[in-house]
Design brief:
Shape: globular
Helix content: 55-70%
Structural class: mainly alpha
InterPro entries: Lgt
Subcellular location: Cell membrane
Strand content: 5-15%
Number of domains: 1
Oligomer: single chain
Enzyme class: transferase
Organism: Pseudomonas pohangensis
Distance between the termini: 62 Å
Number of strands: 5
GO molecular function: phosphatidylglycerol-prolipoprotein diacylglyceryl transferase activity
Number of helices: 9
Order of helices and strands: EEEHHHHHHEEHHH
Length: 269
């Protein structure tokens, strides 16, 4: 059994100003995404400047933050936030939804593409391979915050989280690290290797949706669901799984449609 390494969620405090590790993880994700996208910029569009790329990253980041927060409020704990609306501003306490952030990024890409001569899927295919950087960093932030831990287990790598986080002091799956490994590392490797060759439009977006959905569904079997929701059906279905199932179906459809359209265009040519 492992003991949680007592990590202060506050990375730096200067008087009343506190910089949290959770917020820094977002900066890591955004900065890492910009760096890797800048390396792929010429292949994407030689006419694009790094300033335009920075604008895309900025608006996508706004989509992540605003969509992620609103998604959590709507999908996971609407009653509590209606009771205390100002709680919505305390993002350093956690409470972000990937699925809400995903919708936010899609809206940002649609809006940005309309103003810069790119289709929605051209931009989604471009940014999808770097999204796992932010996902992985976010899961490390969850781990530092000692939140979203897993179900009780007697596995030798089980971990006991701090009493302020888990009053029961049970040995649990460190599910944040499982999600870091799957949604961060594994998904990044899959997408990065897949995009080493040109792929038909929509296929990269489809691969992202498919594999993120699969990894999230697997991770939810080890993770304790949000207390205010619990299990939604059959004694095991969680909100995370419910929101990820359509992503798997959408991913399969996009991959199938992308290659079918490519084949049809090849025949027509």
């Amino acid at each position: 059994m492992l003991v949680y390494p007592q990590i202060d969620p506050v990375a730096l405090a200067i008087g009343p100003l506190k910089i949290h590790w959770y917020g820094l993880m977002y900066l890591v994700g955004i900065g890492g995404a910009w760096l890797l996208l800048s390396r792929r910029l010429q292949a994407f569009d030689p006419q694009w400047s790094k300033e335009k790329l920075s604008d895309l990253v900025f608006w996508s980041a706004m989509g992540v933050i605003l969509g992620g927060r609103l998604g959590y409020v709507l999908f996971y704990d609407l009653a509590a936030y209606l009771h205390e609306p100002l709680k919505m501003l305390r993002v350093w306490e956690g409470g972000m939804s990937f699925h809400g952030g995903f919708i936010g990024v899609m809206l940002a890409c649609w809006w940005f593409g309309k103003r810069n001569g790119k289709t929605f899927f051209q931009l989604m295919d471009f940014i999808a391979p770097v999204v796992p950087i932010g996902l992985g960093a976010g899961r490390i932030g969850n781990f530092i915050n000692a939140e979203l831990w897993g179900r009780a287990t007697d596995a030798p790598w089980a971990m006991v989280f701090p009493a302020w986080s888990d009053p029961q002091q049970l040995a649990r799956h460190p599910s944040q690290l499982y999600q870091f490994a799957m949604e961060g590392l594994a998904l990044f490797v899959i997408l990065w290797l897949y995009t080493r060759k040109p792929r038909p439009t929509m296929a990269v977006s489809g691969m992202f949706a498919l594999w993120y959905g699969v990894f999230r569904i697997i991770a939810e079997f080890f993770r304790v669901p949000d207390a205010q929701l619990g299990y939604l059906a059959f004694g095991w279905l969680t909100m995370g799984q419910l929101l990820s199932l359509p992503m798997v179906a959408l991913g399969i459809f996009l991959i199938w449609f992308a290659y079918r359209r490519q084949a049809a265009q090849g025949v027509a040519g």
